[in-house]
Amino acid sequence: MSEKILLVEDDSSMGFLLVDFLESAGYDTVLADDGLKGLQQFRDEEFTLCIFDVMLPGMDGFTLAEQVKKINGTIPVIFLTARGLKPDKIKGFSIGADDYITKPFDEEELLCRIQAVLNRSGSGLRQAKSSTVEIGNYSFDWENQILYLNGEKERRLTKKECDVLKFLCLNRGNLVKREDILVALWGENDYFHGRSLDVFIAKLRKYLSNDERVRIENVPSVGFVFSVVDR
């Protein structure tokens, strides 16, 4: 069964071109031309991923994403929009967007970004039936902010510690850029928040140190790779 994408785009020419392009790449794609229709479509069918324009009639893309996330908090959402200002991007990520792509865009890059999001969502937290994900000998209950070791409660994480660990888990095995974490969790990429991120990474390394297979690798000047290494 192919991946199913909900595309909400009010420009009919752009919408039909995108549907043809995505379907030629193997994605079953459903098109809605305004936010309210998109929301009803999401309620009526099951989708693997959503792609939303921001400037939509009926209901704007940001509000649509918020409503969709209330129905299914784990559904991946990509914004594809002409609104490329920093405040718009920050708002998109704060809502829970997995990516934010500005028009005009390269079609091959769009496919790569879609596949990257689907790869991240195909295992781990997004597909978990509960809010708990296994990390080596640890279990991480992100909803209740609890880290367990060998089934026993190890500690309750702070909200920000939980957010950082959840972000790493969502991207397990992939290189995560520092700026992506900062924009997604703090709303901006600056020196002071960067220092805060380093502190939280150090804390998480300490919390997870009782299983040597669990690693948060620092890639200098780029970001981090979170992984659980086989014995």
Q: Can you describe this structure?
A:
- The strands form three sheets. This protein has a five-stranded parallel sheet with strand order 2-1-3-4-5, sandwiched between helices.
- It is elongated.
- With 231 residues, the chain is of the alpha/beta class.
- It contains eight helices and twelve strands.
- The longest helix has 17 residues.
- Helix 2 runs parallel beside helix 3.
- Strand 1, helix 1 and strand 2 form a beta-alpha-beta unit.
- 29% of the residues are buried.
Oligomer, anyone?
single chain
Overall helicity: 40-55%
Compressed to H and E, one letter per element, the order equals EHEHEHEHEHEEEEHEHHEE
- The low-pLDDT segments are 123-129
In angstroms, what separates the terminal alpha carbons?
34 Å
Q: Strands of the biggest beta sheet: in what spatial order?
A: 2-1-3-4-5
Radius of gyration: 18 Å
User: Helix segment count?
Assistant: 8
On the 0 to 100 scale, the average pLDDT is 88
Main β sheet profile = 5 strands, parallel
Strand content: 15-25%
Q: Any idea what the shape is?
A: elongated
Overall SS class: alpha/beta
Number of strands: 12
Write the layout of secondary structure elements.
Elements (H helix, E strand, L loop, with lengths): L3 E5 L3 H13 L3 E5 L2 H10 L4 E4 L8 H11 L5 E5 L4 H10 L3 E4 L4 H15 L10 E4 L2 E4 L4 E4 L2 E5 L2 H12 L4 E3 H9 L4 H17 L6 E6 L3 E6 L3
Q: Nutshell version of this structure?
A:
It is built from eight helices and twelve strands. By secondary structure, the protein is an alpha/beta fold.
